Amino acid sequence: MTIARVDRPKRSPAVSGTGTADRRDAPSRRRRRRSQLTALAFVAPLVAYLAAFYVYPLYRNLDLSLRNYTVRSFVAGDAPFSGWDNFSQVLNDPTFGPALRNTMVFTFVSIAFQYAAGLALAVFFNRHFRLAATLRALFLIPWLLPLIVSASTWSWMLNSESGVVNYALHVFGVSPVDWLTSPHWALTSVIIANIWIGIPFNLVILYSGLQNIPAELYEAAALDGASGWQQFRRITFPLLRPVSAITLLLGLVYTLKVFDLIWIMTKGGPGDSSSTLATWSYQLGFGTLLPKFGPGAAVGNILILIALVFGLLYIRVQRRQEA
Amino acid sequence: MRSTRRTLLAACVAVGTLASLTACGGGGSGSSGSSGKSATYTFWDPYPQFDASSDWGKRVAQCGTEAGVKLKRTGYDTTDLGNKALLAAQQGNAPDVMLVDNPVVSTLVEAGILTKTSELGLDTSSIQKNIIGAGTLDGTSYGVPIGANTLALYYNKEVLSAAGVDPASIKDWASLTGALKKVKAAGKKGITFSAIGTEEGSFQFLPWFWGAGADLTELNSAKGVAALSLWKQWVDEGYAPKDVLQNTQTTSWQEFATGDYAFGENGTWQLGNAEKAGFEYGIINIPARNGGSAPVPTGGEFVTVPVQQDTSRYEVSKKIVTCLTSDKNLLPTDTTLMYVAPTTAVQKEQVKANPKLKPWVEAVASARGRTSGGLGTKYPTISQQMWTAVQAALSGGKSPQAALDEAQTAAGKG
């Protein structure tokens, strides 16, 4: 049901296909070598691409974080190796604690709500009522909008002076909230905006997962007298588990690195009340007139490491499910 | 059999294309680095709003033609330009001439990528000392200012007269706060400024910080705390809106332009928009704590010549810089950009052409460079801590004293 599971069985017939060609010795060896070359030639562009766009940038980022870069040594390229200095500087920075906590809160609260809302909507749309397709398409809008547009719009809506949200609160007699300018609300505000942006992604993937659950199961359950909730709990949710796992993992990686939304809405402020590891990394590297590339890269690497840990966790969980 | 050959061929073609692509890429960057003989010079500026057909674009092209070369101009976002320059210098393809925001000059000098104006033999004697000061480190200047701008208080005449405030009576902080109180009592809004968590926020806070007599080397002095307490008082009392924390200078101007606000702290560059605002406005200098005008920070760009491996290029670069900063060209340039010229001679002509510039010329005369006074590359760190403290205090997260104490500790660490 997941991508990984689908392509594994497919590969074996291809291998056995070349195996059947081994009938006559000499020509077949030549042919095999040629096919190996062909294979290599096919792989080469991918390897070159991966090396140029993945391995090298990662290596550079690691290199940046392990050297003591000043603007001068950045240009001259002779920054001395400083070991873990950048990392210890970052870990001891008073911003690190709040940034890590904000990152975790931002990520987990966002994902929990995105997933719950996405699942609820997916189940809802799976009933195939009239206009379901149209409505579903409308729900995709947050996903289609460029982030800068949606983030700026949220920023206007939540403006403490002239925002439409405070106006609505005022109409209902609630006193205005400093959504983006109060240290107590800033993180909540960016989380709300991020949930709104992330729901379509969850909806689409979970909806496609629902399509794969055979309708007979529901029929059988209905014959057995299972209620709607029981059907969801005993059939939908367990059978959706693999899809849920990949949705949550992708959501996690995607949310951990959210930068533009927060930067546009609050710049990580006020103070550092809504700064996450991603915005802090940018702040260090590019946010001031005097860039601190080393610590900025170190924060970036910590972020990659966190994503990696969750990725490994996912693989582990998936393996256990398969076993 | 045939199909394998065909796939092999296809794969080879694919690899070949990829290889030739990278080869092209490499060749391209190489040729731009060593284009000593081809007469194309590169020019970067932070004015992406002007395209080639604008007055500024034409003037740049003209200066290239006069120097006998083709000048290729690229406009970058101001915040982007410093890092772009560092990266370009690292790759060995820095532009020949570059216009940068004045506080960036010290960072680029620290990186060792700017040539000294004395080395190029540029004459900077006619330029006002405090303006060129922002690009001067240890007594050596590294660029020629193209113009200067700074901050003052725009006021809305209708709002002030309705509240019964005479703008001429505003001499110090107490009278300004008194005026804000009257305006609020009259049902209008007091003042808007930008306290955003970027360099813009520090730029806007500095007139008050310096106006209190505080010094950037000691953020948490009693004087510094007084400046931050003034802003905090305004926000807490509702004289200034809470969204100043998010305001850039542009959005702050938009608030002032609604006509609801009595005062807006903004820069020379808004003069054109002020004419279009649809209400009568005036300008006063930002008052110091105990009267008189507060020292304001200088804004504006410097023309710099990044270091090149091929030093023979400097001769043409010098001609281009001289052309851009000649009195003849400064006048139209600074008129386009709404800047105050860096030389007294051109300033006089500017005031003659537009008397409204007079308070701005006075403000610029008493302005200070942010990186002046031996601060240099210490300024960016201090500035970052300062805007963080402003944000922390205005949002109610910390008291002004606590916020500035923390800022001073962090700035001291570097």
TrEMBL record, chain A:
SUPFAM superfamilies: MetI-like. InterPro entries: MetI-like, MetI-like_sf. Gene3D superfamilies: MetI-like. CDD domains: TM_PBP2 (cd06261). Residues 100-314 form the ABC transmembrane type-1 domain. It is found in: Cell membrane. Keywords: Cell membrane, Membrane, Transmembrane, Transmembrane helix, Transport. The keyword Transmembrane helix applies. Its main location: membrane. Residues 1-32 are annotated as: Disordered. GO terms for biological process: transmembrane transport. It is a multi-pass membrane protein. The keyword Transport applies. GO terms for cellular component: plasma membrane. The chain crosses the membrane at residues 37-59, 104-125, 137-157, 185-207, 243-265, 293-315. Residues 1-10 have a biased composition (Basic and acidic residues). Belongs to the binding-protein-dependent transport system permease family. This is Lactose transport system permease protein LacF. It comes from Streptomyces jeddahensis.
Automatic annotation (TrEMBL), chain B:
Keywords: Signal, Transport. One of its GO terms (biological process) is maltodextrin transmembrane transport. GO terms for cellular component: ATP-binding cassette (ABC) transporter complex, substrate-binding subunit-containing. It comes from the Bacteria. It holds the Pfam family SBP_bac_8. SUPFAM superfamilies: Periplasmic binding protein-like II. Residues 1-25 form the signal peptide. GO terms for molecular function: maltose binding. Belongs to the bacterial solute-binding protein 1 family. PANTHER family: MALTOSE-BINDING PERIPLASMIC PROTEIN (PTHR30061), MALTOSE_MALTODEXTRIN-BINDING PERIPLASMIC PROTEIN (PTHR30061:SF50). This is Maltodextrin-binding protein MdxE. It comes from Streptomyces jeddahensis.
